[in-house]
């Protein structure tokens, strides 16, 4: 991946300076937080996309495959996938349809609920997600671009933000196995 030349000035620091100059002092720190996190997300997503490109996977498709691979049987009800990925059911259904089309998952009838469906990982899907995980681990996750101490602090800060927004409640010490 070609890295762009660094800008001579941090545009987010300049934006904060402008916020302050325009008298928006109460919102300046918040604007800087929001735009900083959004810019960091863009940078990380570019790295993730580059790592997943050889596998013809988007991060959404990867997440669904990885979730199914983590489950005990390689299959989960569609409703569980929606809840765990924290995205709208329409998005999960659309992603699942593409994965079915590509032979990476199959839809199965739910054994106890005739109205529900299970999503099940195929061997091709398991092989692909395992290879993609190695690439993500090597190219992105092993070195996210900050120290281990900063990473732990950042995760803790963002977790507090997510919790305050109602994203989750206090977890049990160990999540239940799928």
From TrEMBL:
Q: A GO molecular-function term, please?
A: DNA binding
Record's superkingdom? Bacteria
Q: State if Zinc-finger is listed as a keyword.
A: no
Residues in HTH marR-type domain copies:
30-163
Entry keyword annotation includes Transcription regulation: yes
InterPro entries to which the protein is assigned, alphabetical: HTH_MarR-typ (IPR000835), MarR/SlyA-like (IPR039422), Tscrpt_reg_MarR-type_CS (IPR023187), WH-like_DNA-bd_sf (IPR036388), WH_DNA-bd_sf (IPR036390)
Pfam families on file? MarR_2 (PF12802)
Q: Which keywords fit this entry according to its UniProt record?
A: DNA-binding, Transcription, Transcription regulation
Q: Which SMART domains match?
A: HTH_MARR
Q: Tell me what this protein is called.
A: DNA-binding MarR family transcriptional regulator
Q: Which organism is it from?
A: Microbacterium phyllosphaerae
């Amino acid at each position: 991946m070609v890295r762009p030349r660094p800008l001579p000035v941090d545009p987010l620091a300049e934006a904060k300076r402008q916020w302050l100059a325009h008298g928006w002092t109460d919102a300046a720190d918040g604007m800087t937080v929001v735009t900083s996190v959004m810019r960091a997300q863009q940078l990380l997503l570019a790295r993730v996309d580059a790592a997943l490109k050889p596998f013809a996977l988007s991060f959404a498709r990867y997440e669904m495959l990885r979730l199914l691979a983590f489950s005990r049987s390689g299959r989960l009800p569609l409703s569980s996938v929606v809840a765990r990925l924290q995205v709208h059911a329409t998005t999960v259904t659309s992603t699942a349809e593409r994965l079915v089309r590509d032979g990476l998952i199959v839809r199965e009838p739910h054994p106890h609920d005739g109205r529900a469906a299970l999503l099940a990982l195929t061997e091709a899907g398991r092989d692909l997600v395992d290879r993609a995980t190695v690439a993500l681990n090597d190219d992105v996750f092993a070195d996210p671009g900050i120290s281990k101490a900063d990473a732990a602090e950042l995760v803790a800060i963002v977790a507090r933000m997510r919790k305050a927004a109602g994203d989750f409640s206090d977890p049990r010490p160990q999540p239940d196995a799928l």
